[in-house]
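Progress against Task 2.4 (sequence-to-structure conversion) is shown through the following example record, which the project officer requested during the mid-term review.
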Amino acid sequence: MKQIISFVIRYIPRSFLQLISHFILRIMAVFYKGNKVNCTVCDHSFRKFLPYGRKARENALCPNCLALERHRLMWLFLQQKTNFFSAPLKVLHVAPELCFIDRFEKLTNLDYITGDIESPLAKVKMDIHDIPFEDNSFDVVFCNHVMEHVDDDILACKEINRVLKPDGWGIIQSPVYDIPMTLEDKSISSPAEREKLFGQRDHVRKYGNDYAKRLSKSGLVVEENNFVKELSNEFVSKHALPPKEIIYYCKKGLN
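Structure tokens generated for the chain above:
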């Protein structure tokens, strides 16, 4: 199973996977019935989650809603640390994750807009380097696992900062490795070389421990929040949360 999933997500276009994967995985969910793990997003329980990733991680993907470890953690963070589920908020969700879209759209307190340059799930086709909305438009912006793909991550973050309202906030997650500084080389265009150096064929940089400081060059105020450390080991295990995942919580700063 791990080898099949690894091959599929490595070579099948993401836009195609987004359209069909949830149908296939919900069939597989029947074979994972149990109560050992629970998904915080959809509240379904299983004997275990599916493996996922190019180097497949065990117990990662919820077969019902397709939430990964980081999605389950983000859902909890939004519940416990923000007013996302209660306040009237205008939200821009860049590259929206399937596990969130329907649930966020059903929240009556939200004016919820999805945008992406290629995803068939997004309602607005947009380039994050040039977000097609006016200054100070949104209370919240989500943009997860995007910055490692874009040509200019600082420009993209400047755009997020621009469209946030003065008291706006956001979450910008990316794969962050335990290396001192972000690795970037714009001369590398070969998919094979990018995979070797940056971890994935369509990544253009490999973020290090300077991630928050780097994104803050855009004007955003980027904070590292170790929310997962507030949770018990038993809770982290029950919901298969990423034990070292930092939430990169952003606030509007100077333009």
